[in-house]
Amino acid sequence: MTKLFGYISVLVVALVMASAAAQESIQTLEPPAEGVAPDAVIGEGPPAPPPPPCGTQQVAIARMAWPSSAILAEIHSRLLTANYLCNVAVQEGDLAATGSAMGATGQPAVAPELWIGRIADIWNAAMKGQKVRQAGTPYAETVFEGWFVPEYAATQWPEVTTIEGLKAHAADFGDGNGRGKFISCPIDWGCAVVNRNMLRAYGLDQSFDIVEPANRFELDALIAEAVGRREPILFYYWQPNAVLAQFAFKPVALAAYDREAFLCLGRAACASPAPTGFAPDPVVIALAEWVYLDAPQVAAYFGRARMPFEEMNRMLQQLGEAGETVETVADRFVAERGEIWRPWVGLPVEQPVPAAPAQ
After folding, report:
1. For 145-265, which CATH class?
2. 304-349: pLDDT as tens digits
3. Phi, psi dihedral angles at 254 (to 5 degrees)
4. Is 99 helix (H, G, I), strand (E, B) or coil?
């Protein structure tokens, strides 16, 4: 970039010097008499049309295999087509292949939910080569993991959304043995180690027994069974996810994220676990570099396009209903949820029309 600015500076100086020299020999004409049209200037014509908001290339959007990414890809496709008249193509992708292709060819142009922590080497190389940029984050929230309690438990005991409240009501979250039950993630997942240490960090290991299911299906079954019986439970989960929309839950307030404390929680031999929240996960909206240069309006759109977890949870729940597809869920979002997406495209949120007074 420094070389480029240096080249431009030399060029400007040369042009100024040439212009100054030309002023000594140029001949000027008298201005035309009043009422006489001046001669046409060579090359003058109608003003050039503004560049298209989407540039001159097709905007390919990567649709990853997991549902939230697929829904985001279809939503962005519809909004870019309708509001910016983009030539959009949605194409199947995966983390590694998409990251590599964006860094090498600039296509796909958009990856609306790229988990760059999983492809750090590929992402870092693309960033170093100035081929991709981070437009923003796909969600309004950045911490994807948490502890939750059912809404009915929080209604009965509002304080159980805090650590101190959980300590006071531990016996209410158990099987009658005086100790609570905490449902963690599957035993071979990294979060299982974090949750064990986090219980120790908050002093809950003295009053809660930990349950580590064998797999994701058992985890969901344990939660569904407890909710079906309206049992108070404390459990670990992540967002966005249909489970948290299917059943109403409240997050437990944890301490602010502390990087060093969280690193210790990830080690099985963490000697002195300290309270901390979960780490924010590096999930980004990735854009090819050319989008910023040729289609800045589109780049600005993606900088504003942040989906609330609650809304994505709701759409994932809809996707599980009979007859629903990613496309139908995206269509419904665009048709019904303008209060969320209109600010993304720079439009004001439509105000509801007041009901006519009764006669």
Report:
1. alpha beta
2. 999 999 999 999 999 999 999 999 999 999 999 999 999 999 998 8
3. -110, 170
4. helix
